[in-house]
User: What shape does this take?
Amino acid sequence: AGQILIGTGREGYDIKRPIGKRASRISVIVLSSSIEEQVVLGVGAVLRKSFYTNDIRFVSAAGARYQAFRVVFPHEEDYLLIDSAGRALTTALVRRRLLVSLEQGVVTSAPAKTDPWLVLLENSLESITKRYPLPRTMFLVAPDSVREALKGKLENAPVGSLRLSSESATVIPLAPAHLTDHLKLGLVPETDLELELLAIFAGIPRG
Assistant: This one.
């Protein structure tokens, strides 16, 4: 699906305008993603036929949401971004506003008396903590129908041993109210947060 430049850093800190700066250490973070060629061709053909356009660009969903979050929550420095859509679960770690770790998986069966969603989450967090400590703040992106239930699971998840701090985590479910300063939302019976985050990403100036 291509590559997205998601961050530039100087001396370990995120900078928005690196041109003309002096530094002993510069870092560039690029999120790369790939899709099978036949899938791209098939989806592209459907979109061209349905919308009569050839202006089609495939982007990484995780990278697009991360950049949208930087716009919606510009003052948040360190957080986990947990995105649950159907059986898919994506867990991203942001440190100093830079995306540094990404874990993706699909909820499958689990041993008796265990929650498959929590098992996958714990495995994802364990992978992340092999390199980084977990932050206190967790953002949750999930459909309306399961948002509160998943928030409760996160608040009670037995992951305290993976965190350096004894303070309880702060779980913030993304809600339409967070996006009203960046989008004009129509009157619809159920919001689509994934689509709204993509719209915010599409509105970010490039170049």
About this structure: Residues 2 and 33 are 6 Å apart (CA to CA).
